[in-house]
Specification:
α4 packs across α5, α9 runs antiparallel to α10 and α12 packs across α15. It contains 16 helices and two strands. It is globular and about 65 Å long. The protein has two domains: 183 residues, Tetracycline Repressor, domain 2; 125 residues, Orthogonal Bundle (Arc Repressor Mutant, subunit A).
Length: 325
């Protein structure tokens, strides 16, 4: 849907990419819209879990909104394909998807509407104030995703927060929100990164991305064969689609894990030659340290428990955050 657009994506496109039969598709979903609705619900479930882990309970209204907004923006930056499907393509969906979208915006507006309890100025606002603010913020995020801007959405935090608090707390507080530094990672991510699993540090080493089976295979393959081309990297990861390979390699390059040795002196038509950066070498080494947890299993993300693998999870289930599925 991200590549073709919802209107131009057929059930045949979906089953071909997922490598399942149309019968299997219709055993799961009534139609294409039900499939999109399910993707939306899955994304919401992840966001709910991350908001719950963010520790919003007990925070003052302004901080609760800020941490919640930051957590959502971090999720969108980490899962750009899923973000575009849920924010951009969902607007082209049918009545069920649009109704669910309106329900989500209404829930967010209720949170923002809590600002009316913040004092005399805030009390003069109405419920429509919150609806307008949420709609405006959604429109801004929508526009950024639609344009495919490389600037991370998290960089909008100060401006969006300034816009939200202005009618409730006034221009002085709004200016302070604009000037507040953007945190490096959400509070809940910082807590998770400080933990050690089975005596081994987090294999990502603070890299803001989700580790997947195919990502691990790409990094390990390039570690074993420096100078690998796109095709060779794809073969190592079991990715047949050249476009998917290119997207994954480009993202890993942006994250500072890979470098293309052909650089600016590349001759037209010459294959890429990928190698690990110092950071990439550390991540690849940590992946190998974690590998025994899923050794011999081609259907799991790195570090996935065997009980999950046993349910038939495939590599594509874990690649959406990297534009690979």
């Amino acid at each position: 849907m991200d590549e073709l657009g919802y209107s131009d994506t057929s059930v045949g496109d979906i089953t071909s990419r997922a490598r399942v039969s149309r019968r299997t598709f219709y055993e799961q979903f009534a139609d294409r819209e039900a499939c999109l609705a399910a993707a939306l619900e899955d994304a919401l479930e992840v966001v709910r879990g991350e908001l719950s882990a963010a520790g919003l309970e007990g925070l003052a209204w302004r901080e609760r909104v800020r941490v919640g907004l930051w957590t959502i923006l971090v999720f969108f930056d980490r899962e750009p394909v899923l973000a575009r499907v849920c924010v951009v393509q969902a607007l082209r969906g049918g009545p069920r998807v649009l109704e669910r979208r309106e329900g989500i915006l209404a829930q967010l507006a209720l949170v923002v509407d809590g600002g009316r309890l913040e004092g005399g100025r805030a009390a003069r606002c109405t419920a429509m104030t919150a609806e307008g603010l949420v709609g405006a913020a959604f429109s801004i995020v929508y526009a950024r995703l639609l344009k495919g801007e490389r600037r991370p959405l998290t960089s909008l935090l100060g401006e969006l927060m300034g816009m939200v608090v202005l009618p409730y707390l006034g221009p002085a507080v709004a200016r302070r929100e604009l000037e507040r530094p953007v945190p490096a990672v959400p509070v809940w991510v910082a807590r998770e990164e400080s933990q050690v699993v089975e005596g081994v540090a987090d294999p990502l080493g603070g890299v803001s991305m989700r580790l997947t089976y195919r990502t691990a295979r790409v990094l390990e393959g390039i570690a074993e064969h420096p100078g690998a081309s796109n095709r060779q990297a794809g073969e190592a990861a079991g990715i047949q689609d050249p476009g998917q390979v290119s997207k994954l390699l480009a993202r890993l390059e942006r994250l500072g894990l890979l470098a293309n040795r052909t650089g600016g002196g590349r001759v037209l038509g010459e294959p890429n030659a990928w190698s690990l950066t110092a950071k990439g070498a550390v991540v690849a080494r940590n992946i190998r340290m974690h590998s025994p947890a899923v050794a011999g299993c081609d259907d799991a993300a790195v570090g996935v428990a065997s009980s999950v693998v046993g349910r038939g999870v495939s590599p594509s289930d874990f690649d959406t955050g990297l534009g690979g599925a």
